[in-house]
Design goal:
Blueprint (H helix, E strand, L loop, with lengths): L3 E5 L6 H9 L8 E5 L5 H7 L5 E4 L16 H6 L4 E4 L2 H5 L5 H13 L4 E5 L3 H5 L3 H9 L13 E5 L13 H18 L8 E5 L7 H5 L6 E4 L6 H12 L1
Parallel strand pairs: 1-2, 1-8, 2-3, 3-4, 4-5, 5-6, 6-7, 7-8
Helix pairs in contact: 1-2, 7-8
The structure holds phosphoenolpyruvate.
């Protein structure tokens, strides 16, 4: 399966900075690239980026439309060119208190709207130390319970241990391997036909000096990159490591 590197820019970069970034990005054939900018840079980035680079949104309402002040719907995202949405990032779960129930509704909305999505799952340090990692991830993956048939083509999973995000503490290859294998097993339980073809990405302090090792682990089909995706030089370097 072709690997993918997704840049999550969080609340960084104005529109011009986003466009300048993409204009300096080296084209790649060996790896798929996607960028998740702020909502407000989506359209500019979509217009500026080569068509091979997918552009995603950092969040999406579970509702189709209506009196939900401050929210953004799937059709609004499509209207500005978003190719996919990221759901359940740990910062949404922790800071904005998005529960598994809400994230499940967002997944269901993405399915109804035929919007490809990356579902982020991962344990906190406390959960890991209590031996609850698999249980926590299994509950998060239950957001996919309603999916059937061709809906599975919409799905990408990102394993992002919360303790590794922005901390400089990358998970060990053993941890990544154990959790990715577990996620693959769960996906195969959900969908024996499509489970093998669903990408499972790793995220958490990925940089140019660890990306090659991480991507060489079985069942790691790409990476979700925060901090190291902000600077065009370090992002280009990271992508070059994958393409070697
Ligand atoms: C993220 O926020 O999804 C992430 C992986 O961040 P970082 O690469 O900075 O750990």
């Amino acid at each position: 399966m072709k690997k993918i590197i997704i840049a999550n820019w969080k609340m960084h970069k104005l529109r011009k900075e986003a466009v300048d970034f993409v204009e300096n990005l080296s084209a790649q054939k060996e790896v798929d690239i996607a960028i998740i900018p702020s909502f407000l840079a989506l359209r500019d980035l979509k217009n500026a980026a080569p068509k091979e680079i997918a552009i995603g949104s950092q969040n999406m309402s579970e509702h189709s439309h209506g009196a939900f002040t401050g929210e953004i719907s799937a059709s609004m995202l499509k209207d500005v060119g978003a190719d996919f949405v990221m759901l359940g990032h740990s910062e949404r779960r922790k800071i904005f208190l998005e529960s598994n129930d809400v994230i499940t509704k967002k997944v269901e909305r993405a399915v109804v709207e035929n919007m490809p999505f990356v579902l982020c799952v991962g344990e906190t340090l406390d959960e890991r130390e209590l031996g609850e990692t698999k249980e926590v991830i299994s509950v998060m993956l239950d957001a996919l319970s309603a999916l059937i048939g061709s809906h599975w083509d919409l799905v990408t999973i990102a394993y992002e241990p919360v303790w590794a995000i922005g901390s400089g503490k990358v998970a060990t290859p053993d941890i990544i391997s154990e959790v990715h294998n577990y996620i693959r097993e769960k996906l195969l339980e959900f969908t024996p036909e499509k489970g093998e073809g669903i990408r499972i990405l790793y995220g958490g302090s990925v940089k140019s000096d660890n990306i090659a090792e991480i991507l060489s682990i079985d069942n790691v089909d790409g990476a979700l990159v925060g901090g190291a995706s902000l600077d065009p030089l370090s992002f280009n370097q990271l992508i070059n490591e994958v393409s070697i």
